[in-house]
Amino acid sequence: MMTRVHPLTLGSLADLPDHARRCLFWEMEPGDTTTAHAQCDPEFEKEAWISSVTLSWGSCGQLLYDTTSGSSEEKVSGCALYAPPSSVPRAASFPTSPVSADAVLLTTLQVNEFALSQGYHDTLLQAVISDLVRRGVRAIEAFGHEHDAATSWRDQHMVHQRPGDCTPSTCMIPASLLRDSRFIEVAPHPEYPRFRYELDSDHGWKADVEAALMRLIETSTITLPSPSPVGAGG
Predict the structure, then answer these.
(1) Which of 29, 50, 137, 189 is the most buried (most CB within 10 A)?
(2) Which pLDDT does position 155 carry in this prediction?
(3) What's residue 147's pLDDT?
């Protein structure tokens, strides 16, 4: 399978995976009711949010595409979304808020099961890192979700107020995935720990080299010479 990561643009919004294209967990205020959500068009609201962030701040996402061997059809197998915390209404509602002033908030790191098994979530994250290093960002932070964790009613009430079918379980990055991706837990919590990934100038060229090597490995083939016919002479 061949993969590539490409920045999310206004022209590629339709390529977002179905749930990510409709999910408003991060983009709507926690106090918004289910009724308010039912009266809006989720895809329109998500497009409006992405358009606003893109025009005011720059690209706020990466898309992971793959092409199965023997097929020319390309499909999206994952996405990452990120933005300044001031552009993410729900960021202030967590018990481990606020996000550090020098960090960009990673809200979504989502890949399908096969891509996850192949470690392509790391390929997607490296594209995010490379983009943010080039833009001079100091760090990435993310709120993780500890599945099956017990937490207080107050914390549940603050975070779980949600539009439609959006919930922490479906719309937040698993804490285990952030740990596996070398994020450091900087604000512990039984259900909503906050993580941080420090960026520096070395990350830029490392990410570019790793991406180039991955492309080389995926596209290269080894051609063995055909054996000479038995008895053939010079």
Answers:
(1) 50
(2) 44
(3) 76
